[in-house]
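Inputs:
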Amino acid sequence: MDTVQAVLVSINDMLVQNDPTTTIPLFHNLATSEHPDDPYGPLINVLGMEEELVVLASLRILGLLVS
Amino acid sequence: MSRVRACVYCHAFADPACRTDNKPFPYNLAGTLLASLQGLLNGSRIPLWEVAAQVLAAVLGKKQFRLAVWEEGECISGWVHRALRGGAQADSLFSLIKSLKSNPNPQAQYWAITSIWQLSFERMAAEGLDKWVTISLFHRSIFTDNGLGNTTSLPF
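Outputs:
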């Protein structure tokens, strides 16, 4: 659980603290024919976790990536 | 060049022009995301409600989500959809107005109104919203009664 939190916080830092015009396209480009759900799939999966921080952090990242 | 320069200073959710994912959000995942938002939006905890409302406002920037939210209805059933669509619209609309007016947090009201506004970009939703002329009354009452001028942006 702590690992998930740490990863989500790191992703959030990458998206917020750096220039979003360069960082966010990197995440968008993760989608491939083998993994068409990336980068959204793993973030959607953790929405099922009960821990509040994980849900909120993943929602926040999803909002940034989708918008 | 000017677009890039503008984006350096923009708010995280404020300038989708340079960040929007051109590919559609995976359709098999959209339901899970909306269900998660629905759970938080219909809950009673204001901090969670606010985050969910901000995320909803962010994803409503995509046509795919505007249509999904309006068609599904469940995502915002607690405060927008149930009030503006379906059977007992009048009572629900008044309850929406009441909840918005009685909500002590201007941030929550701001995001609720933002989501309604974004939904109105879809013709189908706009026509559904337009049936209720009282929507202008509820906007006016919120702006005059609760001081939305004090609303500030969260540091996303």
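Remarks. Chain A has a mean pLDDT of 84. The CA atoms of residues 10 and 59 of chain A lie 14 Å apart.
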